[in-house]
Amino acid sequence: MLKQFSPDKMLKTPFGITAEHLREMGKTTILTDLDNTLLAWDQLDATDEVINWFTILEAEGIKVMILSNNNEMRVERVAKAARIPFLAKAKKPLAGNFKKAMEALDATPEETIMIGDQIMTDIWGGNRQQLYTIFVKPVKETDGFITKFNRMMERMILKSLRKKTNLKWEDSL
């Protein structure tokens, strides 16, 4: 049962992921969560670090898209600044918008990774689609109201995963 919640990798931050790493793995596409993955959940604007990371990845041939459960206005603001596509109100971990995102990017599950800060939405959803999943430390210690329940479940899952796997926080792929 734990396998469905187990990420393939745990990173301290997504910004250590490079196009070179991805190509070595046979990956061409990134789906990434937004809130507490790339930016603090209550930060409105994209940072230079986020914009530069997306710009470099795309310049090196990696397709990227924000896949967020947040509302369209919130996600569009960041995606527009970074000049990348997005899907808001994604209803992760449900399959529909994972598939829609991959179709929009002309990508297959085998070449796609999902990056996120929540086991119950990002990792579980990505695993259900057979994506390579990367769990990142949340940008900010606090969460929005809805996320607090997920974090409680996540702590229990992570405790069990650490006992049964060799997953640990790393700096890069």
UniProtKB/TrEMBL annotation:
Short name of any one Pfam family annotated for the protein: Hydrolase
Top-level lineage group: Bacteria
Entry's InterPro entries? HAD-like_sf (IPR036412), HAD-SF_hydro_IIIA (IPR006549), HAD_sf (IPR023214), PGPP1/Gep4 (IPR010021)
- Membrane-crossing ranges are none
Q: Name one GO molecular function term.
A: phosphatidylglycerophosphatase activity
Annotated EC: 3.1.3.-
Name the CDD domains on file: HAD_BsYqeG-like (cd16416)
Q: What is this protein called?
A: HAD phosphatase, family IIIA
User: Which keywords, in A-to-Z order, does the entry hold?
Assistant: Hydrolase
Query: Is Signal among this UniProt entry's keywords?
Result: no
